Amino acid sequence: MLVGDVKVIGTLPSGPVLLCGNHVNYRDVFLFGMVRSSARLLVHPLVFTFPFLKKHALRWGFVQVSIEDAVALLKKGETVAICPTGLVEALGEGELPFKTGAVRIAQQAGVPMVPVYFHYGNYPGRWVTAFSITVQNMILFCLWPFYRRGVTIFVGAPMDPAGDIKARTRELKAAVVELKARA
Asked: What are the residues whose beta carbons fall under 8 Å from the beta carbon of 144, sequence distance 6 or more?
């Protein structure tokens, strides 16, 4: 309802994986479920401070960001999803740096990381970048009916998390940004 048509390109390996996606919009959090319906999303602790959001977040299976909790879920065989930027990047340009938590989670759990790229069909344009990221998101939130033109979700090849955490984080970001070229 919030995005229109959804198309997924690519497949996931069987078993537990850590889905690592760009964070273009707040709608992304629901779209990880289109990649794997059982995916548990790590969300900012602030989500759980609002009674209305907390109630729905728990029902939807969201989990407060915690390396320990994510590792435990992955070791139980579940799929976990994370947006390594930690912030919404309204135009999806891949300019925000990735934090190292995704690589640390995958290393500790011994599971592959899978890059994911969300490409929405229509955005207002670069004019919104003149505003702060918060204002950009408010514009997109308020005007979502005008920009509801579908989304294509690109799923990349699984990546081994072993190695230097910072180097693997840069490689993960490069893999997500590389998927953008397919859009």
From this structure: 2, 27
